[in-house]
Amino acid sequence: MSLPKNAANYKRYWDEERETMTQKQRDKVILERIRHQLNYVYHKIPFYRSHYDRNGFKPEDVKHLEDFTTKVPIIEKKMLLADQRENPPFGSYLGVPIEDVVRINGSAGTTTGIPTYYGISRRDWDRIGEIEAMCQWAAGIRPCDVVQITYPFSLWLGGWGVLAGLDRIGSANFPLGLSESERHLSLMHQLKSTVLWSTPSYAIRLVEVAKEMGFDLRNSPVRMLIVAGEPGGRNPGTRKLIEDSWDACVHDSGSTSEMCPFQTNIECEEHAGTHLYTDEVYTEIVDVRNSNEPVLMGKRGAVVYTHLYRESQPMIRMWAGDESYMVDDPCRCGRTYPRLPDGLMGRIDDMLVIRGANVYPSAIEDVLRKTKGIGVEFRIIVEKKGALDEISVLAEYDPVAFPGLTEPSKKSALDNLAGEASKAMKVSLGVRVPVSIVDTGSLERSTLKAKRVIDKRRLPKTN
Amino acid sequence: MSLPKNAANYKRYWDEERETMTQKQRDKVILERIRHQLNYVYHKIPFYRSHYDRNGFKPEDVKHLEDFTTKVPIIEKKMLLADQRENPPFGSYLGVPIEDVVRINGSAGTTTGIPTYYGISRRDWDRIGEIEAMCQWAAGIRPCDVVQITYPFSLWLGGWGVLAGLDRIGSANFPLGLSESERHLSLMHQLKSTVLWSTPSYAIRLVEVAKEMGFDLRNSPVRMLIVAGEPGGRNPGTRKLIEDSWDACVHDSGSTSEMCPFQTNIECEEHAGTHLYTDEVYTEIVDVRNSNEPVLMGKRGAVVYTHLYRESQPMIRMWAGDESYMVDDPCRCGRTYPRLPDGLMGRIDDMLVIRGANVYPSAIEDVLRKTKGIGVEFRIIVEKKGALDEISVLAEYDPVAFPGLTEPSKKSALDNLAGEASKAMKVSLGVRVPVSIVDTGSLERSTLKAKRVIDKRRLPKTN
Asked: How far is CA A239 from CA A231, A249, A395, B27, B384, in A?
C-alpha cells in the first residue's frame, strides 16, 4: 500500500502548485534556471570555464530550451575524478568557499575504486532536504510512518540524502544503517516499521534471512519498500518477487549521488514509472552515441542530468551512464512531470554484445526472477571464446520449490530447471544463454549493491 | 588549539545572555522549568505517575529548588528497561503520540545487553540540535572547521546527537562513522579535518595506527579532539597521551544517551573541567548511598540528571551511575555554569574494593598512562582469591621506548617496567597491584568503547 490508511489527514501534494503546473509553465522556469546556472558556472567555476572554452561554448548560446541539449557539452564522471586529483579534495568545481560547506561525503567508488568527494553548501543542503521530502511525499511517506533505513551511514552519500528528506517529512526515522540482517528484521518487528528503504538486492536478501528465522514477511508491519541504489526497482521480475514476498508495494527511486537531491526520480502511488522532477534536476534522454542529439519521447537513449539550483558542485549536463526512455502523458496522480516508465534500465557500460544482440544484465535478471524454481542469487559470467564474447549464467534454485530433493532425482530436476531458464532466455533476449543450477546459499550475498556480472574478459589471465 | 585562528570573526558565545546570566537568575529559570516538568510527567506520563504515587510524591511538594533534590524520587536505567519490556517498544514514558516521533534510536546495550529504545519528538529533536550546537560552540567549533566523526551511525544515539548540533553550527561535517582506522587517517589528511570526534580509546588507537602507517599525527590538520562516549577525557594521563601524540587539545564532553542533548556537559577553551548547562539538563551531585541527600560543592558523589525541556521520554532525576564532584567558582570563559573539574570520573558500578580501598579503573589507567614505557593497551583483571577481591594488570609496553629489544635483555627490561608501574600504582592508589608486561599488539583494540576490566568474579566457573 503506497499511502497509509489515514492519508486523507494529510495534504495530497508537498507543493501542489509546483508539482501540477503545465508543461509550458514549467519549461519557462526550467529555461530561466538553466540560463542562470550556465552563467554561474561559466563565470565562477574554473572547471566549467575551461571545459566550455575548450569546446567553444558560451552561456549566451542558449536562448531556447532546445539549445541546451544541442549546444552544451556534457561532463562525465571521469572528468570530475581527474579534476579532483589535480585540485584536491573537491576539484575546481566546488563553487563555494570551504567555509560554506556543511557536509562532506563521497561516492562508494563502485566503478573506479577511487572515491569522488562531495562538498555541499549550507544553502544546497537545506534545499536538498526540502526537495527529497517533496519526492518522498510523492511516494506516499507520511508523518505517521516508521521508516527503517538499511543504507550505510558512512562515506557514501545515499543514506544521508534520504534521511535529510525524511527529517523534513517528520516520519519516525530509524536510521539503523548497515547491520546484521537478523537485527534489521527483529527491530523491524519490534519498532513496527511501515516503510523499509533498501537496495532491491537487499530487499531480496532479507526475504531469505526471514525464511531462515521463521518470520513470515507477509505479516510484517512494512506496507511499502523504497528501493534505490542500483537498477532493478522497475524490473518486473525483481519487483514481483519483492512485492509477493513482502506483501507490500515497491517504489523505485534515485538517480546518482552527484545529482543529490537524487530522489527527483521517484515512483508515485500510481506505479506508472518514476516521475522526474525536471524543475529541480533537469533530465534529458539523448542518443547513446551523440550527447548533443535529443531522442524522441518513448525512444531509448542515455540519461543526462542538470542541477537547476545547486551552487556547490553543480552538475550541468552530466552523463550518468544509465539508459532509459521517457514519456510525458498525464499520470493519474496529477503530477505533470514526465516519467521513466521502466525506471533506469541498466548501465550503458554494462551492456553486453552477444553475437550481435544487445543484452543487459537487468534483462537476464528479469527472466530469472520470472522462472519458477530459480532462487534469489545468481551470477552472469562473461568470457571471450575465440573472437566472440559469450555469456553463461549460474543460478541457485529455490529450496521451497523443490522440497526434499535428493540424488538421483535432484540432478534431473535441476537439469530441467536449467533447461527451462535457458529456453525463457532465448525467447526473451533472442540469444541462447547456457544456465547452470547451483546449491542454495553457494553464491555470496551483499547488503548494499550486488555485483552479479563476472566479466572474465577484464580479469588478468592466469597461466 | 581550542579556537580556530579566525575565531574573532565569529560571535564569542552561542547565546550570551543565557550562558552568562547570574546563578540567581538561572536558578529562577530552573525552578520554573522543574515545576513545569514535574506537572507534565505526573499528569501525562503513566511511568512517572505510578512511580511518584508509589513513593508518595506529588509535584506540588516542590516549592523551592532544594525540595527537588530532597523530595523527588530518582529513576534508574533498570526501571526504564523493565517499563519498555512491559510496554514495547518505547515504554509508558514516551510522552507523545508515535506520530510526533521523528527519530528512533537505541542504546548500545553496553551494560545489560538489551537495548533501550529512544523515541524523540520533532520539537525535542529540533531543540536538541540547537542545544548541542550551543555546547559545541563553547568547545570552540566554528563554521570554518572540518569535523570528522568516528562514532558509528547506527542504532546508538551518540553520533546522531553530535551531528544534529554540528549541522546547526554549519561546520563542514564529515560523518565517516565506523570505518577502518587507516581510512580515517588517510581521509583526515585528504580532507584537512581540523576537529576529530571520538572516544578517548579510539583517539589513542589512531595514534598506534598512524605510527604503523608512518604518519606523524603532530603534523596532522587536526587542532582539537572532542572525546566522549566513555570516561577518561579528563583523566590527566590519558589526556596528556592524546594531546602530546596529536599536538592538539582535548575537550571532554557528553553525559549519557538518555539525557540527549547529552553535550550539556562540555569543556570550554579554558580547560577548567566540563561546564554543565544546568538550565537545559539540571545536574545534581548526591550522596552515593542516598539519592535524596545533596552533597556540598567540591565533594564527590553520584551524578543525577533532569531534562528541563524534553517532552518525549523526559528523564526526571535520572541516576546515571557516574561519580564526580562539582564546583561553581567563576570560569575565565565568562560562562556562569558550574563545572565538573575532573569530568565524569568513573562508573559507580565499576568501583573495586581492594583490601578496603576504593579503586577506580580510571585511576589505574591514569597511572599507566603516566608511566613511561607502558604501551597504549591494557587490561585490569579482577578475581576472587579466598574471601578477598584481588586485581592485577596486564599492560603492553611501548616499542618506541625499547628499540631493538631482544632476549635476554628484554626480560629484565620489561621486569623493571612492571616493577615501576606497580610501584607507581602503590603510591597513587595506596594498594599493591601486580603488573605483567605483554607484547605490543597482543591485546584487542576497540573502535568505540573499550572494555578493559575483565571481571572474573562475574564469569561462570569452568571446571
From this structure: 11, 9, 18, 60, 60
